[in-house]
Design brief:
Blueprint (H helix, E strand, L loop, with lengths): L2 H14 L5 H10 L4 H19 L11 H19 L1 H5 L7 H12 L15 H16 L1 H6 L10 H7 L13 H26 L3 H12 L17 H14 L3 H10 L3 H5 L1 H23 L6 H16 L16 H8 L15 H19 L8 E2 L2 E2 L2 H27 L4 H12 L18 H15 L3 H4 L10
Antiparallel strand pairs: 1-2
Helix pairs in contact: 1-3, 1-4, 2-3, 2-7, 4-6, 4-9, 6-7, 6-21, 7-11, 10-11, 10-12, 10-13, 12-16, 15-16, 18-19, 19-20, 19-21, 20-21
Length: 483
């Protein structure tokens, strides 16, 4: 294990992360909210700590192996979450404990959107901006951003890219070099964000809110600058903008890049995962909307479709924005919205959940097993888009599915052991491991009422969901640490 090379990268990332404290300083000075000092202290602390870690191994030039990539990814996320909590700890109002601050930081960077802040409107402007910025940086992955600058350290980035990128299709590169791939991803990401900011502004948001909500929309995060989330505006145009960009952010960013490079929409129509993703969004939206109308939740069909479509898109893309308290909706609807978050968006998107491509593979493999019962000797390949899927990929997907469900079950049991009722426990774990955010029961409004052990368990669930189980659990195996 190349620990010195790992330490070198972590030190560099930590020192570089001090830069993320500078935009909030500018926001604080512009709005004179008095928080510039705490962000400057945070920046200085991160820079000093990063240099302290980096300088002893600055001349270590070892080639990274795949195992080193996994260790760097997990270590970087943990370190950045822990230090990202510093501004929340230094806040005088609200007075947050370090566990609360870590929970908020973890929720931001993993784009979960669960919050322990009970009065978001009362937060200083710079802190509001910082929360949204955390989600934006976490959306595409801080490690992918770092890959774009790793040539400065003379360390190959493919190992990091494979460990960080969500979904089973990790070997597909958009450009011949991994650095160019990372830059291409960020180019698309920034372009969509700028377009979303402009759209929110035209829809009626002030520029500060437009920036903040564009950051969390494209990152599929769900943090808002107001207690009522997007319901604060009660504006159908704002909601339509959010629906469109949540759906766009839930699509594989490689497709966005390919369509942009070819100046053609054809790649979207040819992608089998996108077809299923769009069909599921449409199907669930219609089902929930009619259920809202038939149960009398809303008086008109138009209102039912307005709130139903929004919450389905928000839930399945795991964004977590709300325009209505869905946890109070009748019947099966709240549970359905939590469960469809397990599907998530497309692989290669900023969405959480298991990803649509895995659901497709699980379904087709299940159908194949049923067909084999009828025709035991038949050779029945599993195909995606006309291409045969290897048994290795299918085995990995089944393994992922087992670990995902097992992790969900274990953490639900642990959460009930802290004294929570079963509805709150299962929905909170589901909302965190899928990176959805909003849940049911006692955590419907926010997560402030949970005990510290419960917040720690849910923070681990957020990280597992963001790193897609394997990346985190592989570090717990003895074989990983053997040379």
């Amino acid at each position: 294990m190349g620990f010195s090379a790992v330490q070198r990268v972590i030190g560099f990332l930590l020192a570089g992360s001090s830069l993320m404290m500078l935009p909030p300083v500018l926001v604080s000075l512009f709005y004179t909210d008095g928080t510039a000092g705490l962000f400057l202290v945070s920046a200085a602390s991160l820079l000093a700590l990063g240099l302290l870690i980096y300088f002893p191994v600055r001349n270590a030039h070892q080639e990274l192996r795949l195992r080193d990539g996994f260790l760097i990814v997990v270590s970087a996320w943990l370190v950045l979450v822990l230090v990202g909590a510093l501004p929340f700890v230094l806040l005088s109002s609200p007075d947050l404990s370090y566990v609360d601050a870590v929970f908020e930081s973890m929720s931001g960077l993993t784009t979960t959107g669960a919050t322990i802040v009970t009065d978001i409107d009362a937060l200083p402007r710079a802190v509001l901006y910082y929360r949204q910025q955390l989600q934006w940086l976490g959306g595409m992955g801080i490690i992918v951003l770092a890959v774009a600058v790793l040539p400065m350290l003379r360390i190959g980035g493919m190992q990091l890219y494979r460990a960080e990128t969500p979904g089973p299709m990790k070997d597909a590169k958009l450009t011949p070099r991994i650095t160019e791939t990372a830059k291409a991803l960020w180019l698309i990401y920034v372009g969509i964000t700028i377009t979303c900011i402009f759209a929110y502004w035209l829809a009626g948001m002030k520029l500060f809110d437009a920036f903040g909500h564009a950051f969390s929309t494209v990152a599929i995060g769900g943090f808002s600058t107001h207690n009522d989330s997007l319901a604060y505006w009660n504006n159908p145009t704002v909601e339509i903008v959010a629906i469109v960009f949540m759906a766009i952010a839930g699509i594989n960013f490689a497709l966005h890049f390919t369509a942009w490079r070819r100046a053609s929409a054809q790649p979207y129509f040819l992608d089998p995962e996108l077809k299923v993703y769009a069909s599921l969004l449409l199907g669930f939206a219609i089902l929930v909307s009619f259920a809202l109308y038939l149960t009398g939740t809303y008086e008109t069909l138009a209102l039912s479709f307005r709130y139903g479509i929004f919450q389905v898109v928000s839930a399945m893309t795991t964004t977590g924005f709300t325009t209505a308290p869905f946890y109070t909706w009748p019947g099966f609807l709240p549970v359905m919205l939590i469960l469809i978050a397990f599907i998530g968006g497309c692989a290669g998107s900023t969405a959480g959940g298991m990803k649509v491509i895995r659901v497709i593979l699980l379904y087709r493999q299940s159908v194949r097993e049923i067909q084999r019962l009828i025709h035991p000797h038949a050779i029945i390949p599993v195909k995606i888009g006309g291409q045969k899927t290897s048994d290795t990929v299918i085995s990995a997907v089944w393994g992922f599915f087992f670990l995902y469900i097992a992790s969900f079950a274990v953490m639900t049991i642990l959460l009930t052991a802290t004294g929570l009722d079963s509805e709150t426990a299962y929905s909170a774990v589901a909302a965190c491991i899928t990176n959805l955010g909003p849940a049911l029961g006692k955590v419907g409004p926010n997560y402030a009422g949970l005990s510290d052990p419960a917040k720690i368990i849910l923070s681990i669930a957020m990280l597992m969901g963001r790193l897609e189980i394997y990346t985190l659990l592989v570090l717990l195996t003895p074989a990983f640490w053997r040379d």
